[in-house]
Every structure is written in structure tokens, then in C-alpha cells.
Amino acid sequence: MINYPNGKKYTPTAKKERKTKADISISSANRGMSLEEDINQSSEYYSVNNIALIHKRPTPINVVKVDYSKGAKIVDAYFEKQSTTDYNGVYKGRYIDFEAKNTKSKTSFPLANISKHQIEHLKRVIQHGGIAFFIIEFQIQNEIYLLDASFVIHYYEHGERKSIPYEVFKTEGIKIKQGYNPRLYYIDAVEEKYFK
Amino acid sequence: MINYPNGKKYTPTAKKERKTKADISISSANRGMSLEEDINQSSEYYSVNNIALIHKRPTPINVVKVDYSKGAKIVDAYFEKQSTTDYNGVYKGRYIDFEAKNTKSKTSFPLANISKHQIEHLKRVIQHGGIAFFIIEFQIQNEIYLLDASFVIHYYEHGERKSIPYEVFKTEGIKIKQGYNPRLYYIDAVEEKYFK
Known about the structure:
Strand content of chain A: 25-35%
Strand order of the largest sheet of chain A: 1-4-5-7-8-10
Largest sheet of chain A: 6 strands, mixed
Order of helices and strands of chain A: HHEEEEEEHEEHEHEH
CATH architecture of chain A: 3-Layer(aba) Sandwich
Helix content of chain A: 25-40%
Oligomer: homodimer
Number of domains of chain A: 1
CATH topology of chain A: Trna Endonuclease, Chain: A, domain 1
Distance between the termini of chain A: 48 Å
Number of helices of chain A: 6
Largest interface: A-B, 50 and 50 residues
């Protein structure tokens, strides 16, 4: 069975389940929501409140055949790999670009799910003066960090183990406060890291 | 027959034909390329040459059903309306956001193809200090202009005829130089309008 490029099976409802038995027993704040949903809800909050304008890029799909007799129904198409990151937008005039990932590992964030294209894209963002980072969720700890893309690029290109130790997030990352609305105060972390 | 949200039939190959008999007889520089292809080619040039990083947002598609027995083939899906613009990215650290349209009218650019959502999106971009504009091609004249989004917003909300006179482009827009590589020197126009 061939899956979605990121290795996960695509769920058409976009409500990806991340609850596991481990999560339920460990995380008291478990809301049964995916990191993606949390970011989208938070971005909506930031947009409505005129704080920042961040959008998730649509998943690129290669459309092969459309049936116009059925109201422009797409009947043959395939997912394509995102060559950029999933999110971008603007905050205080600056260009913002980031990717979000989670891990069940307690000790490190594996870089296997990051593509070479994404790394090249993020290098270019930095080169053009944009703000580039990752939002990484350590599910077991129930901690979410903003880590500047430069660290991810460094470990991707020079790391031996192709993973970033959890300690790097503790020392170099900004811990993102979690709440109800927004669920993730990720712009607070952007403000702290890049505007102070 | 229901068509693609923008009123045009979707061509799966992404090579949209814009050549008409009128074009062929009028435009000596006709290259049989669509404005979208020209922008994509130019963005690629700007990216490779480290001048700017601009991407076209993928068309949002609502995936209803995926057949995993056939290699993750999408068998039921529908096009969704783009709630933002088609292009965004970064130039000199600033956030760039724009929409591209063409018209066969000689005298004005009709706003019928611009959605309320896109206008709201562009207002927010400006509010957050981003650079927002339209790239409009007058096909008969074979002229392409950058026009700041504020003009489009103004005519959209206050114009009686729901169109922007060609003269406004001549006086308030920046004419985009056309060439071979890049096909459209649209970043030159951005530089002239926003960085001088």
C-alpha cells in the first residue's frame, strides 16, 4: 500500500487522530486534537484579532481527470509532495514560514520526515530575510517548541544521527504556551525569538 | 456544466491556453503562454538567482475519497475556492502577496473575478505591513501592470461599474517589463513601487 508522501495515510476529513493510549495516560491536557488543527485554530484566532496573518498551504494535488458531467468532480488525481513548508504568512510586515511536526520520541526529534526540498526552501527563506522555524510537538512530554530553522538545517546537513536531541529544544527553542483560545500561543514565541 | 470557481474550465495539464485569433493578430510578442506560466517561470528565475522567493499556492481541493488499493489514487474530490490569493512569498524580508488576472477588455479591468474573500485577505495583508498587489494583463494591448491592492480594494468597494479603468493602470500602476528570462520582470516593478 502506497501512502501519502509524509508516510501517513490521508484522512479525507482532515481530522487526524493523534490520540494513543500513551497520550491518554500521560497527557492530562489531552484534547484529542492534532497539532495541525491546533495551529489552524490559533492562526484563525490571530487573523480575526488582527495579530498576524498565517495560512496553511493547500496540499498540492496533481489532477489527472475531471468529470464535468458530475459538477466538476475530480475522478483521478494524486497527492504531490509539498516542496515548501505547510505554513506561511505575515507578522509585523515580516515574512513568516514554518513547518509543524510531532514525535512520539522522548529523547529526540527524528528528521526522517523532513524533505531535502523543505530544507532548501527554508535556507532560501532565511537568505531573503524571512523568519523560518519549526513547531515541534513532543507528544509524550506534551511540550511544543518553536525552533529556528537554522538548527534544523544544521542537524539535517551535519548531524550524524539525523535527529535533533530533545535538549536542543530545551536550550535553544522557545516553549509554546498552550491554552484554549488560541490553543497555541505560537506568535508569542515568534515575538520573543525574533522581535525582542 | 459547473466549472472551476473562477469560471474557467480546469485544464489538468496546467497549461492553460490563452492564445486566441485576436491575440495572434495583435500581439507580435505572442508566446502562447499563459500569464500564470509566465509568473511561475519568472518566480523560478528569481528563486534560482536568489532575488526573491515567491510561490504559487496550490489550488485547494476537498478530497472526499482516496482509493489506497490503487496507490493512493484520489477518486472523488472537488475544487475549492481560493480564499486567499494565488501567490505569496518574501523579498528583502518583506511579505509579498498578489493575485494575477488577465482581461480581453481594452478599456477596463472587470472585478467580477475577484472574490470578497480575496479582498478581505488583501486588506489584512496591508494591515499587517505586507506588500499586496495585483498583476493585471491587458491582452489586447499586450501590457502587464502591477497595481497596488489598495486601488483594487477601493474600486471593489466604492466603484460603481465594478471595474478599474485602463487609465488608472497607466497613471497609478507600474508597467511590468516583458522579456525572455525572466518573462516578466515583476520584481523590478515591486522594487520601483515599494522600495524606492
